[in-house]
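Data availability (excerpt). The following record was deposited with the supplementary files.
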Amino acid sequence: ELLYADEDRLDGRGERMDPVFKPGWSPDFFQAKNYLGPLIVLRRTLLEAGAGLAPSVEDAPYAAALLLLEREGEAPVRHIPFVLSHRTVVEEAAETARRGRERALLARR
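Predicted structure:
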């Protein structure tokens, strides 16, 4: 029901650097740290359910993943062990803000 992949960064010249090779799915680790990243694929109905729980559209995938975890325990989540997305410095600043919202969402649980 949910797929996630590895990622890396692009420097100012567009060169790839700092790959992030993520672990296989771990429900316990995921509750401590959202390591899904910016590129995930999940079932639409699950995303819609998560959107009802999230304070913003950007938080909906994380909320959906938490919902899936609550609903199914060992959820059907798969890691694709290839770098399929790239972040820039600007995207990393937005990610820092998103992490703050995630912490607020978790505090409400």
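Summary of structural features: Residues 2-108 form one domain.
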